[in-house]
Amino acid sequence: MCLLCHRAPIPEERFQGDLAPDLAGVGARLSPEEIRARIADPRRANPDTFMPAYFSTQDLVRVAPAYRGKTLFTEQQLEDVVAYLATLK
């Protein structure tokens, strides 16, 4: 999902986005807690972001009925992504 908008140091992935910040070095720029917060609900850091809130169900718009009240990531998925991104020093 991340690579739809972000670039990352994953050379085997040919198609990477350029709409959002490059993820190279994100683990050096942000703590795991900051990374988690930005993935869980990026609106806290930037109210005008177009990045989805992957672990929030509050104040969302245009959510299909089948997905209302559900997060995009499970808690384990969120922690897995945070752990990976934290390694990108």
In short:
With 89 residues, this protein is mostly helical. The protein has helices at 26-29, 32-40, 75-86. The chain is globular, with a radius of gyration of 13 Å.
Q: What fraction of the residues are assigned to beta strands by DSSP?
A: under 5%
**Helical content (DSSP H or I, runs of 4+):** 25-40%
Largest beta sheet, briefly? none
Count of beta strands:
0
Mean pLDDT figure: 96
Number of helices: 3
Provide structural commentary:
- There is one protein chain.
- The protein is mainly α and 89 residues long.
- It has helices at 26-29, 32-40, 75-86.
- Helix 2 (32-40) crosses helix 3.
- The two termini are 20 Å apart.
- The mean pLDDT is 96.
Highlighted features:
about 0% strand; about 90 residues; single chain; 3 helices; mainly alpha
Topology readout:
Layout: H1 26-29, H2 32-40, H3 75-86
Helix pairs in contact: 2-3
